[in-house]
Specification:
The chain is an alpha/beta fold.
């Protein structure tokens, strides 16, 4: 069994200690270091070169998003999973677009966090379906709020695309949406591709949203 080396970054010592003890119950996970702020995190990721960094998004001195933007050249092998106590739409989008491989709520069990670590280590993206719902809702609000000149073609979703978004946001997988609408899964994926393009979602974020919508997590 390959061991996954993890750097735990959070400004709350009690949370770090508790999560460390819980995660080390898993034989394939080793906490190689702990950092209490962003500056420590940057120094430690460079020296330790961990496989995974569990990174608190809100910390004093330097928050998780700023850390993300600074560690890309410190350790190319390290994959980052964001930890947060809240589902904040803008924070989720910004974290994923800045290279995070997933977004985890601190309310998850240690078994679920361990699953996320393993999946991310193997090259997958990770997030709960709640994340997909929040991201889509925020992006849709942006689209509807956009005031484009009449001479320009305004970005809009067709009735079928709106319908698919609603079902996905309610937690349905591609297979379930296809059955509900009497269409193929391939057609659902095609619609999702059109939706993502119209919402101008980056390729990195598209990959995560496809995975969640496909019911893989």
């Amino acid at each position: 069994m390959d061991q996954i080396n993890v750097l735990l970054v959070d400004d709350h010592a009690l949370f770090r200690e508790g999560l460390r003890m819980l995660l080390e119950q898993h034989a394939d996970i080793k906490i190689v270091g702990e950092a209490g702020d962003g500056f420590q995190a940057i120094r430690m990721v460079e020296s330790l070169q961990p496989d995974i960094m569990l990174l608190d998004v809100q910390m004093p001195r330097m928050g998780g998003i700023e850390v993300l933007s600074k560690i890309r050249h410190k350790s190319s092998k390290t994959k980052v999973l964001i930890l947060s106590a809240f589902l904040e739409d803008e924070m989720i989008i910004e974290a994923l677009q800045n290279g995070a491989k997933g977004y985890l709520l601190k309310t998850l069990s240690h078994k679920e966090i361990a699953r996320a670590i393993r999946a991310t280590h193997s090259g997958e993206f990770w997030a709960e379906r709640k994340v997909l719902s929040h991201v889509l809702e925020t992006l849709l609000q942006k689209v509807h709020a956009r005031q484009a000149p009449l001479s320009e073609m305004r970005v809009s979703l067709t009735d079928r695309e709106q319908e698919i978004v609603e079902w996905v946001m309610q937690g349905m997988t591609n297979k379930e949406v296809a059955a509900r609408l009497g269409i193929s899964e391939k057609t659902v994926k095609t619609h999702l591709g059109n939706i993502f393009s119209k919402l101008k979602i980056s390729r990195r974020l598209q990959l995560l949203l496809y995975r969640i919508a496909d019911g893989a997590s």
